[in-house]
Specification:
Blueprint: H1 6-55, E1 68-70, H2 84-87, E2 99-105, E3 108-113, E4 127-133, E5 136-145, E6 150-157, H3 158-194, H4 196-206, H5 225-272, H6 276-308, E7 315-318, H7 319-328, H8 332-336, E8 339-343, E9 349-352, H9 354-371, E10 377-384, E11 389-397, H10 426-436, E12 440-445, E13 449-457
Transmembrane segments: 6-28, 176-195
Membrane topology: Multi-pass membrane protein
Organism: Alishewanella maricola
């Protein structure tokens, strides 16, 4: 299993959480058990002291050697090797040596258990105390009987309490330690089963080929739905891109076939030409055809580039600067054959990619000049509208009545205007760039005008 695997990390994290949680639980249980045992044993110490004090009334210490030593059986502690039933076969218990008591009267030791012969001196202070004896911590309880001036001391070793608390905590964590490996195997199986849809999704994606870019319809859990949606969107984009590539290749082959045939025909005419006039005419035809082909190739390449662009690096650019630069880029005959009128606020800015926007305005202004009547005035107006958008209108006084529904269609040119130079790709390029800028373009037919309106969102 790889270290960067989801299965590995899920297995590691889940098992770690289980182990840490159970360890914390065992620790808390141990401390709680120790606290409860402390209370129980403290109560026993107090009760034993009162029992001893009650027995003192029936014991006579006259003519008795003091102190009276109470024997304590010495049974070897065999740990957990014996069961409770086996330990009960003895007449004593191994923990008796861990319990002790003393009785003092008038600062004189009257009675004590055998295991307190070197016990620390009496602490004349009622209540519970901690003391060290033979390198062991003892918990003692001191009871004072004022009518007899008697002190009763009962004690118990602390390790008794810790041993029982440890047994309780271990009893909780031992099954977990035993079940940790089976639990890990079970968790691994569950994780593998839960991640099975992801594996199936990966298998489906890997099986996709450029010829079979269909949507993934396999049912997926809610957590994988965003991934499935993103993959389907990617498949759509790839399929669209491949479709564009095929379309571009087919369009280029189709559109270049005719001018190449014409060039071949003119070359044949040039070879057959016998007079200088025929040679000149054929050469001029070849030059004109090559210019048209160059324009077509440039338009095809430009269209291919803009269709590959997914996002633009936009900035604010003065609109008047873009329009003036686009006008300056027009061929001189077109520029001089038309009167241009720009009506816009010099402070207006347009938000977009300057180079792409210059392509838009150059194509639109070039079309306006091509299709305008000679010596007519083409008006370019720009202003903000009530929706805080920038609206640019190009008003072209022309008798042209194209099919507005087909404007922007690749290689479409109105049959009545085939004599005007063009490839039918300019508006396709314009519409793609307008789409990239989340803008809008529309066409309006009037009695004597053909208007193009661009609407760009304004950005602060």
């Amino acid at each position: 299993m790889q270290f960067n695997s989801i299965k590995f990390w899920l297995l590691l994290v889940i098992n770690s959480i289980i182990f840490v949680s159970l360890s914390i639980t065992a620790y808390i249980s141990y401390n709680n058990a120790l606290h409860e045992l402390d209370e129980i044993y403290d109560a026993q110490l107090a009760r034993n002291a009162r029992l001893v004090s009650a027995l003192l009334h029936n014991i006579s210490f006259e003519d008795t050697a003091l102190p009276i030593i109470i024997a304590v059986p010495n049974i070897i502690d065999s740990g957990e090797n014996q069961t409770a039933a086996q330990q009960r076969q003895y007449s004593a218990h191994k923990y008796e040596r861990k319990l002790a008591f003393q009785v003092w009267q008038h600062d004189k030791l009257l009675m004590e258990s055998e295991n307190t012969l070197s016990f620390p001196p009496l602490v004349k202070n009622e209540g519970f105390h901690e003391l060290f004896y033979q390198d062991e911590l003892w918990i003692s309880f001191v009871l004072y009987l004022p009518e007899q001036d008697t002190w009763v001391v009962t004690a118990q070793r602390e390790d008794v309490r810790e041993e029982i608390s440890g047994h309780l905590a271990l009893a909780q964590i031992r099954p977990i330690l035993v079940l940790l490996l089976p639990l890990s195997i079970l968790i691994y199986i569950v994780i593998k089963w839960v991640l099975l849809p992801l594996k199936q999704l990966a298998r489906l994606v890997a099986a996709k080929s450029p010829e079979q870019l269909t949507e993934i319809t396999l049912a997926q859990p809610a957590e994988l739905q965003p991934i499935k949606l993103a993959i389907n969107q990617l498949i759509h984009r790839v399929a669209h891109f491949l479709h564009q590539e095929k379309r571009f290749t087919a369009d280029a082959a189709h559109e270049l076939r005719t001018p190449l045939s014409i060039l071949q025909l003119h070359c044949a005419n040039l070879l057959d030409a016998k007079t200088p006039e025929e040679i000149k005419q054929a050469a001029e035809s070849i030059l004109l055809g090559s210019k048209k082909m160059t324009h077509l190739v440039n338009q095809l390449l430009q269209l291919s580039r803009v269709e590959r662009i997914a996002d633009t690096a936009c900035s604010h650019t003065p609109l008047s600067q873009l329009l003036n630069n686009s006008l300056a880029a027009l061929p001189l005959p077109l520029l001089e054959s038309t009167e241009w009128q720009l009506t816009l606020d010099p402070a207006l800015n347009i938000y977009g990619e300057p180079f792409l926007l210059s392509i838009v305005f150059k194509n639109l202004l070039e079309n306006a000049a091509k299709y305008a009547e000679p010596e007519q005035k083409v008006s370019v107006n720009a202003a903000k509208n009530h929706d805080n958008a920038l609206v640019i209108s190009i008003i072209n006084p022309s008798q042209i009545k194209p099919d507005v529904n087909r404007m922007g269609e690749r290689f479409y040119r109105d049959p009545k205007h085939q004599s005007i130079n063009g490839s039918g790709l300019g508006l396709s390029i314009v519409m793609r760039i307008v789409e990239l800028h989340h803008a809008n373009i529309s066409y309006q037919l009037a009695a004597d005008n053909f208007n193009v309106t661009l609407t760009f969102p304004l950005k602060e």
